[in-house]
Amino acid sequence: MEFSLLGPIAVTTGSAELSLGPAKRRSVLALLLLQPNTTVPLEQLIDSLWEDEPPEHARTVVQGHVSRLRATLAEGGAEAYGIELTTHGSAYLLRLPEELIDAHRFGELVALARPEVAPGDAVPLLREALGLWHGPALTGTVTSPPFAAAAHALEERRLTAVEALGRAHGVLGEHEQAAAILYSAAVNHPLREGLIAGLMRALFRTGRQSDALEWFHRTRRLLNEELGVDPGERLRGAYEEILRAEAAGGGRAKPAGGARAAGPASAAAPGGSRSAADRGPQPVAGADRGPVPDGTGTVDARGGAAVPGGDGARTGATDGTRAGSGRAGAAPRLLPRAPARFLGRERELAALTAVLADGGTGESPLAVVAGPAGVGKTACAVQWAHLCAGAFPDGQLFADLRGFGEGDEAAPAEILRDFLLALGTPPERVPGSAQAASALFRSLVAERRLLVVLDNARSSAQVRPLLPGGPHCATVVTSRSRLDGLVATDCARPVGLQTLGHEEGAALLGAMLGPERVAEDPAAARELVDLCDGLPLALRAAAAQLTARPRWRLARLAAALRDERRRLALLSAEDTGIAAALRMSVARLSADDAQLLSALATNADGHLNASLAAALAGYDPERTQDGLDRLAEMHLVDEEATDVYTISTLTQLFARDERGESGEGGKHGPGDGSKE
After folding, report:
1. Which of 292, 367, 424, 594 could share a disulfide with 589, CB 3.0–4.6 Å?
2. pLDDT tens per residue across span 134-185
């Protein structure tokens, strides 16, 4: 059994994480862990749990939380580990071996490290210590001043360890590693003068004297503007040391200790760029990636704490998951290969660039590419991702969320595990819960320039735990649903995909079949686009039919597709086809909405209003309007204007076949055509 304080409050046994309940219960456990093997008065617990005046029943609430914690620990086999939570009058005692607490192990490892005397031994010790961190300390506790003070004390100890690791690398002549380690911490703590001084020396010794001096001037301005003070002795000392070295070396510093001088490592966001002055000092390669190549852990890692509500300071903490020490090797490149014969979509690609290059908000931009089944959402998102991959040098992550597939949709914990492993987190340090894994993921990527592509999403709730939080990260989500929830809560920007017109559709056929074959019969090509409803998936399936029949002219396939009983069957190719794609959309509908769609399919021309829809379905007006809204959200009908709805021909054919009005089309194997 292991206890985590250096990140989300957690208790793990083996690979399982115990359920700890609400924030106040987690806070009670955290306070007891910060004072292991020491009695903690009930009044101290009450003072720490309630920022304002505690309620009259506060004692009863705390007693209830202690009782539930005792039961949870017992269920997890606490007795076998020598763990016991006991009551002593009006105080509580958590008796346990302190090495089960991650903050205790952190303190021991840091105490063993001697950066200046034995740097070769200090580096692995400090790496292991910082690797115990997996997010901001005491995550999940109440936001009272005592817990804030304890978290701050832990963070101070973490930063001290980061500085020590930087010094150890410096003594070894590994100045690139020192700069990479110190950069992320300096970005998050721009007023910590000792940290900035260490970074300045490391940058100078890698040949980046201009960046080193810029850090000094930037920090001096911040100190003056925010605190009204001048730089202290440590920061001034580093600055003067660099100036003296420049003067002695003719104004140039050479990389020391065999380290390579690193040039500016910056990439403009897609569609725009910023000047060096706007960007500020640039990191060495890999310096802003969370866990750096030597595995020092996450950007937000912390270490050491004062006890909330106590008289003095103690160290103590625990780590069940102990994630966050993953070593980052090469940046992950998880994108699928670029779509073959991708044409057009210039407007949509430009819209994605406009959304995802918007750095004015200081937030992580989020775009939702939505549209009907078969319209090419995945292809568009992946094409854009490949075109703009250079703007995200710290990696590109991709996941199929299986929102519209035959099996179950992908659980966020499953996707987060894949992401964390790709980012270098050791398997044994990946949290078991989706909440903890999500927090670790956000921490790891907080300062990275990373692209996340989440394909085939079912709902906003499925997507939210997978969103990065860093301002330099960008996310593209594709879905058949509009995902209005993401628009409302996460400021997602929708990028709608429409079906192809005659010219674009014919160009796609030409790319698949060769322009000469399409040029032989342009009228037939236009008819094929119409018969395929302008859907790229259907047009590609038609092209596959013609590729398999090289003697067929386009007009012959068009004639075959005019037979509505055969059309869906002909617009399928092995495991891909419009019928399979539509089947996955309809499978996600409620019984009422599926029945409404089936009723709409009986309308001859595919154009109708709510009154006609109600008459066809036999529903009352309110029930009909709600159903139409849900079908429009899923892009199974299109609201062209107020109370003017259309249903595409292929959707009509599929719904009729499902209803049993036609005996052939659309009743073929489902395949895996649910993704475009």
Report:
1. 594
2. 889 999 999 888 998 999 999 999 999 999 999 999 999 999 999 999 998 8
DSSP secondary-structure letter at 464? Answer: G
Tokens linked to 192: 């910590």
Is residue 309 within 8 Å of 62, Cβ to Cβ? no
Calculate what percentage of the chain has a pLDDT beyond 70: 84
Integer Cα distance of 538 and 540 in angstroms: 5
Give the tokens for residue 507. Answer: 């160009």
Please say if the pLDDT value at position 250 is more than 60: no
User: 369 with 480: CB under 8 angstroms?
Assistant: no
Q: pLDDT by residue (tens digit) across 617-659?
A: 899 989 989 999 999 888 899 888 888 899 998 998 888 887 6
Match 């090289």 to its residue by tokens.
550
576 forms bridges with which residues in the sheet? 573
Q: Of all helices (H) and strands (E), which one includes residue 479?
A: strand 474-479
Q: If we measure between CA atoms, which residue out of 156, 109, 85 comes closest to residue 306?
A: 156
Beta carbons of 399 and 454 less than 8 angstroms apart: yes
Using the CB atoms, write b or e for 153-181: b if 16+ within 10 Å.
bbbbbbbebbbbbbbbbbbbbbbbbbbbb
Instruction: Give the relative orientation of helices 119-131 and 102-112 as an angle to the nearest 10 degrees.
Output: 170
- 39 strand-pairing partners: 93
Query: Helix/strand/coil (H, E, C) string of 413-463?
Result: HHHHHHHHHHCCCCHHHCCCCHHHHHHHHHHHCCCCCCEEEEECCCCHHHH
Residue 287 tokens, joined? 């310096």
Over residues 4-43, the pLDDT tens digits come to 999 999 999 877 889 999 999 999 999 999 999 999 999 9
Dist. CA 314–CA 380, nearest whole Å: 54
